[in-house]
Design a protein that fits this description.
The protein is an all-alpha fold. It has one domain: Rhomboid-like (Rhomboid-like fold). It has eight helices and no strands. Helix 1 runs antiparallel to helix 3 and helix 5 runs parallel beside helix 7. It is globular.
Amino acid sequence: MDRQDETNAIAKELKSQALILGTLVAIFWIVEIVDVMVFQGQLDTFGILPRHPIGLRGILLAPFLHGSFNHLIANTLPFLTLGWLVMLKETRDFFIVSAITLLISGLGVWLFGSSGFHIGASGVIFGYLGFLLLRGYFERSFVTIFLSVVVGFFYGSLLWGVLPTVPGISWEGHLFGFIGGGVAAYLLSDRAKSKTL
């Protein structure tokens, strides 16, 4: 592959990544606009309702629901930034990490969460954070360790979110999301893959 082909491949990959992230963020915003303008916030009842069978649907739906535009704005930039960093090595990692995090975060909240509906993309965002911070530990390559350090420097303060410090914030979603990201980091690491061969 010559330099021009390589440049074209990188540009195509970046375009694909931007499309994936842009589409998901657009869905977040469209859902919130429709929820506020049409349903007066009633869509939030499709979030995770701990220990109620109907609340299980929220495992898939909760990341697309937000309590307000301020909530959505607070989640948009970290979702874009950390989501793109998850894609850096391989775009498909984003889908695998998202799925693992969604499942572990959602089930954790459903089993152990406080009463009331849990909504928002922050559980998935904390999954990306956990993945990026722990990938360096599991892979132990210079690039992944460096990326873990950079992410820790810029986003390390988010880790306080896994503690019950702010009323009304689903710290359980953050905690189990982070755990899910750590599980994904291990499962996608070269060491885990070599054990399955």
